[in-house]
Specification:
about 550 residues; Rossmann fold; six-stranded mixed beta sheet; alpha/beta; about 65% helix; ABC transporter transmembrane region fold; four-stranded antiparallel beta sheet
Length: about 550
């Protein structure tokens, strides 16, 4: 099975440590094989024979072996935990890096809460491949053979009686393993659905309150949590049933051994110590069977998570191929571009237009006409499905993605700020000269606020400690500090005050005059400043060389004056 191979590959880098653990386990097995014989002698040669000195000697030897075994166990466990923690870190690190590089459309299918929950659950499950029971079970094959040898030495007939119970225990555990796999898959699916619903609900908490649907959401919560709890209950009960069933089989066997063994003692065919040693060896034969079969029980819980985790890791990433060429800024051209977020439902169809280098281009159109989609394609958050986007004569797909995005800064309508200082939100953890930083603060209109609060002021979760205008000015300062040749204002003047609109307008007229500026706007201020205007309407594109030309041909846009 492919999932088993992946789990084995996770353990391969730790083969030396695993070998050390196995050696420790073999030593423990050897010690444990001696202990029943020592117990037999303590009983027969010490207590029953009345030899106090022999009793003391045997007890001391037994105690030393127990202490040695405990020390080995601690050392072995320390190494095992080391493997488990490294695997957990490795899986967490590679999943984080994968998330950072995932194509953006994957995030539209699952919310962030669902991503986090799925990854966390799956990594915890997969890490249990380094569980103590897994390593222990591998050595139990030798324990079984050693136990059988010990049983045969004491009594052959009783040994065959013990071996009759082995298939019974096997069948019970096998049946429970199959159920555990099914229950675990149900639990994972219930958790995934709950995480998805939870993320959506928290995102819409304002609407839930405004429209009074809290009770409805509480009912859904109860339903989804009940499903998770029921799955957990079934898994827990199954685990307990497995333990109880195994215990009952062994207890029933021991009762029979006491009855039959007692007759041997009475007939003086076996000593009392031999019976106690025999019963200890029984546990060496039947116990490992549970341990070995429980690997299947454990894997039945791990496999579904392994399958989902590696399916997630197989999701397509953005291509950061280092060997691709570096872009040189020239005119940007959309040539017969087609794109849709869903099949047979294009947002853009055969769209062509030009954005001249070092010009200000305004893109306008009604809601749903594809304005923001053009920006997403230009940023290469999505790739065109038909046609191509060119810089000069080169398709933007031929450029190294990091270098290509290094050409572009953006000020969005929906600004995201990190829960950090104003300084780090502007500079984005890069070294910026003090002069460039101060110029950006002044040009973005942030100067007064910085003087009041300081650059070290923490903005809160996504700028929760700031007003909309303050967030907008930080976003503008961020774009100015990066000083890239292309600057995009994506509905940057909607929902802001007049001063912010004036700041952006003045920047376009003066400081950004030599840059390629792209604005998505309805405001007359930015339309008047545009060197050319692109109108999107029902999958058609019309280009205008001035605001006046737009007004002459489109009565609908006179309202923006």
């Amino acid at each position: 099975m492919d999932e088993i191979k992946k789990l084995i590959n996770l353990l391969k880098p730790y083969i030396k440590i695993i070998t050390f653990i196995m050696i420790c386990l073999f030593i423990s097995v050897g010690i444990n094989m001696l202990l029943p014989l020592l117990t037999k002698d303590i009983m027969d040669k010490g207590f029953i024979a009345g030899n106090y000195k022999e009793l003391i000697k045997l007890v001391i030897i037994t105690s030393v072996l127990y202490v040695l075994n405990s020390g080995i166990d601690i050392l072995k466990e320390k190494k095992r935990i080391d493997i488990a923690t490294r695997i957990q870190y490795q899986l967490t690190e590679q999943s984080f890096k994968h998330l950072m590089n995932l194509k953006i459309h994957h995030f539209s299918k699952s919310n962030y809460t669902e991503f986090f929950n799925n990854i966390n659950v799956d990594i915890n499950k997969i890490t249990s491949i380094a569980d103590e029971n897994v390593f222990f079970a591998i050595t139990q094959v030798f324990t079984i053979f050693g136990g059988i040898a010990g049983l045969l030495i004491i009594n052959v007939k009783l040994t065959f009686l013990v071996l009759i119970f082995v298939p019974v225990k096997y069948l019970i555990t096998k049946k429970l393993i199959a159920k555990n796999g099914r229950y675990t898959s149900e639990y994972i699916e219930a958790n995934r659905e709950y995480a998805n619903w939870f993320g959506n609900t928290i995102g819409g908490v304002r609407e839930i309150r405004l429209f009074g649907i809290s009770k409805h959401e509480e009912n859904i919560f109860a339903e989804k949590q009940s499903r998770i709890i029921d799955s957990q209950r079934r898994i827990s009960l199954l685990f307990k049933r497995n333990a109880i069933a195994s215990s009952l089989v062994i207890q029933f066997l021991i009762m029979i051994l006491y009855i039959i063994g007692g007759s041997y003692v009475i007939k003086q065919e076996l000593s009392v110590g031999s019976i106690f040693a025999f019963i200890t060896y029984v546990s060496y034969v039947t116990g490992p069977i549970s341990s070995i079969l429980n690997i299947g029980y454990l894997l039945s819980g791990i496999i579904p998570s392994t399958k989902r985790y590696y399916k997630f890791m197989g999701l397509e990433e953005e291509d950061y191929h280092e060997s691709l060429s570096k872009p040189i800024l020239e005119d940007i051209r959309f040539s017969k571009v087609g794109f849709g977020y869903k099949k047979n439902n294009n947002v853009l169809d055969n769209v062509s237009f030009c954005i001249p280098k070092s010009s200000t281009t305004a893109i306008i159109g009604s809601n749903g006409s594809g304005k923001s989609t053009i920006i997403e394609l230009l940023l290469r958050m999505y790739d065109v499905q038909q046609g191509e986007i060119l810089i000069g004569e080169k398709n933007i797909k031929t450029f190294n993605l990091k270098d290509y995005r290094g050409l572009i800064s953006i000020v969005s309508q929906e600004i995201y700020l990190f829960n950090d200082s104003i300084l780090n939100n502007i500079c984005l953890y890069r070294e910026v000269s003090e002069q460039k930083l101060m110029d950006a603060i002044k040009d973005s209109g942030l100067e007064e606020f910085i003087n009041e609060k300081s650059l070290n002021y923490i903005v809160g979760e996504n700028g929760s400690e700031l007003s909309g205008g303050q967030k907008q000015k930080i976003a503008i300062a961020r774009a100015l500090v990066q000083d890239k040749p292309i600057l995009i204002f994506d509905e940057a003047t909607s929902n802001v005050d007049i001063s912010s609109k004036d700041i952006i307008s003045n920047l376009i007229k003066n400081k950004l005059k030599q840059k390629t500026v792209i604005t998505i706007t309805h405001g007359s201020e930015l339309l008047k400043d545009a060197d050319n205007i692109i109108l999107l309407s029902e999958n058609t594109v019309k280009e205008y060389s001035s605001f006046d030309e737009l007004l002459d041909e489109n009565e609908d846009y006179k309202f923006v004056i």
